[in-house]
Write a structure and sequence with these properties.
binds flavin-adenine dinucleotide; alpha/beta; 8-stranded parallel barrel; 42% helix; TIM Barrel
């Protein structure tokens, strides 16, 4: 099944993102998390590709097992940086063999040891080139990334939106947003995307702030801005990890509630492989009850 069809059911779609453990950790650790997360009856679970140093080889395996062993639709992330057409087609072959028909198509970031990495030297300098290659098969549902505050490499949101439209027009079914902490930023972004002619679904991506170190790293990596309310929380609980976690859970819960009340078709939760915190957030909202509540009600 292509994931876009799940969004056509007029239900709020809960989707969750997990990452593969690093190569020196047993792969089973992620399944302990998924075992807990499945109680939320997510419509689908996505598996990152090499993000944050996790093992690339495990993405196909984990996506495949999510589908076969848990009966949950799976979306495999695929980044094109550093890959040629042969690599990309070989990964697509593996996904089809495992009955995984949904890809989150991304460019990826430069290798950590090569900050001056030149994308233009590769066969896929941008995600849109990867999407063209995936489209040739006509066998995958395709999602792509949207950056509500603009991609850090792009100095003007207008230009970023221009390339985003180009990417969507290449053949994207829907977009999932980069994390953001201020819903107004997301609502404004959706308005601007619509006025640029981007008409596909844009699903908000939410990452709960569970500790102060994590938040600093994330802001450094993706440049998300922090509203005053969240800044106060981080300052207040910097040295009180348990209180920080509790406040972060509450903050994410209220963000989600507001998004759903405003008619968003779904929410994508960056779980960071944390099970109970994510379960608590979903149950707090009272809106997504086992993934089956009516939209905006
Ligand atoms: P693109 O859409 O290619 O855009 C990258 C930059 O290039 C932007 O600044 C854009 O404006 C510009 N651009 C695009 N087209 C052109 C053009 N034709 N000419 C000039 N400039 C252009 N990373 C991982 O490593 N693994 C993951 O699993 C992963 N999952 C993610 C999931 C989500 C939902 C999101 C939002 C991000 C994820 N990332 C992941 C991070 C992502 O790889 C980075 O943000 C990356 O830097 C950009 O990827 P992209 O697909 O948005 O790139």
């Amino acid at each position: 099944m292509k994931i876009i069809d799940l969004y056509k059911k007029n239900k709020v779609v809960l989707s969750l993102e997990v990452f593969p453990p690093r190569a020196n950790y047993p792969v089973e650790t992620v399944f302990q998390t998924i075992e807990e997360l499945k109680k939320l009856e997510p419509a689908y679970i996505s598996v990152t590709y090499g993000a944050g140093g996790s093992s690339r080889a495990r993405t196909v395996e984990i996506a495949s097992r999510i589908k076969r062993e848990y009966g949950i639709e799976a979306q495999a992330h695929l980044t094109c940086v550093g890959h040629d057409k042969k690599d990309i087609n070989s990964i697509m072959d593996q996904l089809l063999e495992e009955d995984v028909h949904n890809i989150m198509a991304l460019r990826g970031d430069p290798p950590l040891d090569d900050p001056d990495f030149d994308y233009s030297r590769g066969e896929f300098p941008y995600a849109s080139e990867l999407i063209k290659e995936i489209k040739k098969r006509d066998e995958f549902g395709i999602a792509a990334a949207a950056h509500p505050e603009g991609h850090p490499e792009c100095s003007r949101l207008k230009e970023d939106l221009f390339y985003l439209k180009e990417k969507v027009d290449t053949g994207v079914d829907f977009l999932i947003s980069q994390l953001f902490f201020d819903n107004r930023v997301f609502f404004d972004f959706v308005d601007r995307a619509r006025s640029t002619g981007i008409n596909c679904l844009i699903i908000p991506g939410i990452m709960p702030v569970l500790n102060s170190l994590q938040i600093r790293r994330i802001i450094y990596l993706c440049g998300a801005s922090m509203p005053a309310r969240l800044l106060k929380i981080v300052d207040k609980y910097e040295d009180k990890p348990q209180d920080m976690e509790k406040a972060g859970i509450e903050y994410a819960s209220s963000q989600i509630e507001e998004l759903i009340v405003n008619g968003m078709p779904g929410v994508h939760l960056y779980t960071m492989n944390r099970a109970w915190q994510i379960c608590k957030i979903v149950s707090n909202t009272g809106i997504i009850q086992t993934g089956s509540s009516e939209r905006g009600s």
